[in-house]
Design brief:
The protein is of the alpha/beta class. It has a single domain (11-224), classed as Rossmann fold, CATH 3.40.50. Helix content is 48%, strand content 15%. It has helices at 23-34, 41-51, 54-65, 71-82, 100-109, 125-134, 168-182, 184-189, 204-224; strands at residues 11-16, 38-40, 90-94, 116-122, 136-138, 144-145, 159-160, 195-199. The strands form 2 sheets. Strands 2-3-1-4-8 form a 5-stranded parallel β-sheet, sandwiched between helices. Strands 6-5-7 form a 3-stranded antiparallel β-sheet, with no helix packed on it. Helix 1 (23-34) crosses helix 9, helix 2 crosses helix 3 (54-65) and helix 4 (71-82) packs parallel to helix 5. The protein is globular. The two termini are 25 Å apart. The protein binds adenosine monophosphate. The site of adenosine monophosphate has 17 residues, from helix 2 and helix 3. Adenosine monophosphate binds next to helix 2 and helix 3.
Length: 226
Amino acid sequence: MQNAPGREKRVNLIMIGPPGAGKGTQAERIAHERSVPRISTGDILREAIQQGTPLGLRAKAIVERGDLVSDDVMIGVVQERLERPDTRRGFVLDGFPRTVPQAEALDEMLDGRGPLIIIEMVVPAAELDKRMTARRICRDCGTNAEPADTKCSRCGGEIVARADDGQAAVRTRRQGVYTRQTKPILDYYRQRPTFRTINGEQEPDRVSAALTAAIDSALETASSSR
Ligand code: AMP
């Protein structure tokens, strides 16, 4: 493992895919494997909502109806998070950028911090709603859980469905928001040598293997074109 290609390199990674594609699970695994933080803007917002912070109060209704929080708020949240020292060796961003202005702002934030690896996760539409309906998290700490779990493996908290996964209308709205507002960022990134697409429909271990291979190949391309 120690000498595997790319493990010692800085990894700046973003994961793009529709709600239910499995970004959270895969982002968590890859962040662990590369020893970098997973930064989920959805988790940051859910925690802020739960704690009733100013950010949470501002975001609550928007998140619950399945719309996007404004670009300036989200850019501020991510900028502040990327300034923390634990991102020195890189990061896995899960759920950001979600709009072209967010993608442009990220490029500015990363100026001089090494290449950005962009992973698109593709899952057929018919599969997404099933996955969102089955998805469970810990009510207290937000950790992903399996549908059969009764207690959180991390904090012992109660396992529940996400508030924005419960209603069919909200799920449909979030898929529409992805198509209209987030999919255009694929065109923003597609021509970059570090852009990769992986099949997210396979079982999770195979997705992880494909993700690892895509990251190593993107790092290789980035270092040979420097
Ligand atoms: P997620 O956990 O990534 O599915 O995010 C849950 C919800 O948080 C989304 O449906 C949005 O309402 C909000 N959200 C998360 N990330 C962003 C972002 N980058 N821009 C705008 N809203 C976001």
